[in-house]
Amino acid sequence: MGFDLVLKGGRVIDPSQNIDGVMDVAFAGGKVAAVGRNLDASGAATRDVSGHVVTAGLIDLHTHVYWGGTSLSIDAEDFCRLSGVTTAVDTGSAGPGNFLGFRKHVIEKSQVRILAYLHVSFAGIYAFSNTIMVGESEEMRLMAPADCARVAEENRDVIVGIKVRCGAHASGTQGWNALKMPLEVADHVGMPLMCHIDHPPPSYEDVVGMLRPGDILTHAFRPFPNTPCNAQGAVKPVVQEARKRGVLFDIGHGKGSFAFKTARAMLANGFPPDTISSDVHKLCIDGPAFDQVTTMSKFLCLGMPLPEVVRASTVNAAMALKRPELGTLKPGAVGDATVLEIKDGSFDYWDVVGEHITGTQKILSKGVVLNGKWWHPA
Ligand SMILES: [Zn+2]
């Protein structure tokens, strides 16, 4: 059987199969068909990607893409086409009160794959902009556990978990109270919870202490206050225990949630993030987060090896989503791939507290394959 598309001669990095070498990647019928040297491409569309890196389609585990339905969201297709992402995971832009609009008007119409964590708050993140900022998790009357459970059950094809935002900005003075109800919902529907953290209350310790195996803490490498490490740069014991238990640590860069200082301390302690994500939204798409490849570049420049950066943006994210058909180039997997250029030079990067570093590398997207077809301008 012939292939539909073959990417020829790139450096294939697929941590799910311990692959790192110059190979071809072939697609047929919308799926990955083969990975190997000198594949027979007769009759197939081919692209010479020599000098570039080929990975499974990147997964951005933390985005906001309910465009038009929520003020913070950006357009998933515009974003993904340029940032190497083939699966955008929306994290709580929508709640049970407005999820069906997200599904019908955005998810079902989108060429790019969109999965979602459903907010436990009735209308999701409904008041987030430069002029209006109201924490949806502060008002307990908006907590909608029964509706959230029902909508999650009815949309298991696209809803992968439950979302809540905990912290002084998102849940006011509720503290870890804000975490109890969403945990109950996640338990009830048998899905992971993704929890956001900002300023205390609640404390980082209180939040990670309550999370279950498979739950995800996003904004995990945020700046002080509420960091995973102490002032001396040691990882807090409760954070170590949480990782041992199976709690996952996601970056979720965003506008206020990623500090080089924290990341350096965590990497120095041998505690890399499980997943790298951008938390792209209206207020950070023009910096400091920009997108997935920029967030990956920051970790590369902090010394995380490229295959580990790829692991945190592909197979680890797929495991967090419980979608083993994503994030891998195993034959039979979803036919998504990303072609990256790793540029050498001198590049400026900023975190959310204004720390600047000059990096020697930058990851750029040169295009993506979506369901076995090249999906990129030109
Ligand atoms: Zn977010």
Determine the number of helices (DSSP H or I, runs of at least 4 residues): 11
Bound molecules: zinc ion
Question: Rg to the nearest angstrom?
Answer: 20 Å
Main sheet properties: 8 strands, mixed
Q: Order of helices and strands, N to C?
A: EEEEEEHEHEHEHHEHEHEHHHHEEE
Structural class: alpha/beta
Spans where pLDDT lies below 50 across 5 or more residues: none
Q: Give the CA-based shape.
A: globular
Mean pLDDT: 96
Q: How far apart are the first and last residues' alpha carbons, in Å? A: 28 Å
Q: What helical percentage do the residues reach?
A: 10-25%
Q: What's the total number of strands?
A: 15
Fraction of residues in β-strands: 25-35%
Give an overview in words.
This protein is α/β, with parallel strands linked by helices. 24% of the residues lie in helices and 27% in strands. The chain is built from eleven helices and 15 strands. The chain has helices at 76-83, 99-107, 145-154, 168-171, 177-189, 204-210, 237-245, 260-268, 292-301, 306-311, 315-321; strands at residues 5-14, 19-28, 31-36, 45-48, 53-56, 58-63, 85-91, 113-119, 159-166, 193-197, 216-218, 248-249, 337-350, 356-370, 373-374. The strands form two sheets. Strands 1, 2, 3, 4, 5, 13, 14 and 15 form an eight-stranded mixed beta sheet that branches. Strands 6-7-8-9-10-11-12 form a seven-stranded parallel beta sheet, sandwiched between helices. A hairpin with a 5-residue loop joins strand 13 (337-350) and strand 14 (356-370). Helix 3 (145-154) runs parallel beside helix 5 (177-189). The two termini are 28 Å apart. Bound molecules: zinc ion. Zinc ion is lined by residues 62, 64, 91, 252, 254, 279. The site of zinc ion has 6 residues, from loops.
